[in-house]
Amino acid sequence: MRKFICIAAVAMLVATGASAAPSHHGLKGARLAPMAKVSLATARARALAARPGVITDQELEKESGGTGLRYSFDIKSNGKTFEVGVDARTGKVLENGVEGPNAD
Q1: Cα torsion for 17, 25, 57, 31, to the nearest 10°?
Q2: Are 57 and 76 a contacting pair, CB within 8 Å?
Q3: 3-state secondary structure the chain
Q4: What CATH number is given to the structural domain containing 76?
Q5: Residue 103 falls within a domain, yes or no?
């Protein structure tokens, strides 16, 4: 099942053109990138597998939960904005919910 989800995520990235992900220079918190074990591209794929849609914002930040370093993505889906957090060291999806009124 995991293999199917990964294949579906990659297919979606290719279909939407999202595979041309911005470089770390376009990533808020890029200075933290050397501490990440999971690449931005992999984290984007995992976030989109968890919440299909369009990534409108991305950030690498220190935040409690998981290993303390996470990629945070705002994903527009079905007219709502969701925040999906992916642990930057393990690749585990830590958060996947509607963005609150006080967005980061």
Answers
A1: 140
A2: no
A3: CHHHHHHHHHHHHHHHCCCCCCCHHHCECHHHHHHCCCCHHHHHHHHHHHCCCEEEEEEEEECCCCCCEEEEEEEEECCEEEEEEEECCCCCEEEEEECCCCCC
A4: 3.10.450.40
A5: no
Q: Within a domain: residue 51?
A: yes
Domain count, the chain: 1
Q: Tell me: the pLDDT tens digits for 21-71? A: 444 547 999 999 999 999 999 999 999 999 999 999 999 999 998 999 999
In the chain, what's the furthest Cα-to-Cα distance? 36
Residues spanned by the domain of 47:
2-98
Beta-bridge partners for 85: 72, 95
- 76/80 Cα distance (integer angstroms): 6
> Which of the two residues, 97 and 18, has the higher pLDDT score?
97
Q: Average per-residue pLDDT in the chain?
A: 83
Question: Token match 């919440």: residue?
Answer: 51
